[in-house]
# Entry
Amino acid sequence: ANANLGTIFNDQGRLEEAEIYLRKAIKLDPDNGQYHLNLSHLLLKCKRFKEGWLEYAWRFTVKNAKALMLNTTKKEWSLDKKGRVLLWAEQGIGDELMFLSLVPDLLEKVDSLIIKTDIRLIPLLERTYGSRIQLRNKIEIVDESEYDYHLPMGSLPRYFRSSLKSFEEAKEFKLEVDQEKTNRLRSKLLDQTAKKIVGISWDTINQLNDSSILLEEFILGLYTPGIRFVCLQYGEVGEQIKYIREKHNIDICEVEEIDKFNDLDGLAALISACDEVVTIENLNIFLANAVGINTNIVLSKRSWWLFGIDEKQNYWFPFFQLFRQSSFGDWKEPLEQIKNKFII
# Structure
């Protein structure tokens, strides 16, 4: 009951009360990893990073998380070590991109680095880092003779992001896209009527934060003449796009040569061909930032801890601009704010 109250108060933005009840739940059940993880999210939302990352370490104790752990006899890396390090992905691909942004800091602290990551990210990382990093598919088993220490990606911030100042001093992270493909896609998308190319995505399979928006509401809230809207949304969305075109005479360009789920290298090139991106909370926010494209994020009242409380910019990712719901379920205001940016 205390844990549930903590979640409810957190959703309502009543963070001091949320913390009180989450700590009560932990006092009653101190080994419950989910309660600690919930507390970590609240602390991180409040930018209390040191304690937040310590609580975040409980993530491996929650249901099904042990299956994600690396089976190794090697010790975990820490700042007082160098050596050959295996950095391994433990969560979804959006989380991987978020934590991979700390790799430039890590590279200075180790002798060599192997990264186990989603196979879809390997072409981008290979182009960016070349021989400085060895890359392996996250499902591949890396022999222990190849590394001295290991580190789960989600533990990187504990060492490198303990304060707001550490974010300000962070080394730049930017992925190199296939520039030839980007240039070709941009030349196809631009025409005499399009003054700006804006990539859009409006849906996610993760429904925890109530962040998905119906395409009709999304595009009607954003539509501005003179903008070429480009679909960045993965999945079977052709019928949705056709419906919008037939009912509202609004064209959303779908680049069918790019498999937006499996070909993330191609998706990154498409994003890089855009002037800006408008998206909900999904993979595209991290991919757009990683290739240096201004990203307008439409946030629900229950947005993720990364986006803080009420700020309009993001301390972690410099290309993010945040537009928030003022009441649950009402997308009109944040979409209108973005639309006003686009009026030409």
About this structure: The mean pLDDT is 94. The chain is about 40% helix and 15% strand.
